[in-house]
Amino acid sequence: MDYFHAFWVGGLICALVQVLMEKTKLMPGRIMVLLVCSGALLSAIGLYEPFAEFAGAGASVPLLGFGNVLMKGVKEAIDSQGFMGLFAGGFKAGAVGTSAALIFGYLASLIFNPKMKK
Residue 3: pLDDT above 70? Predict the structure, then answer.
């Protein structure tokens, strides 16, 4: 694996997001949702794995990777539970990362004292 690809692809994704933020009226939250949905779409059509193989961490660190995790969870749950897996699969697959973000965010709020702008 050439580490250059990871930096190049990750940097390109960040640059594209920055252009979207500066040249459009899209808010950061909508851009984040766009990235997650793009990762899920790439996973659904079978292009995420070859992309991740080429890009390495450049593909898995941004929100594209989270979309891929959600889609994999949905696919596995549908295979094992049928139609009802559509509703539970993404939650089960993303639960660990979401829980960790909530727990560490809460702990950080206890340790640090943010200064609000007036």
Answer: no
Which tens digit of pLDDT belongs to each residue from 30-54? 999 999 999 999 999 999 888 888 8
3-state secondary structure 78-109: HHHHHHHHHHHHHHHHHHHHHHHHHHHHHHHH
SS3 label, residue 22: helix
62 contact partners, CB below 8 Å, separation of at least 6: 10, 13, 14, 35
Burial, 110: exposed, middle or buried (Cβ in 10 Å; 0-12, 13-18, 19+)? exposed
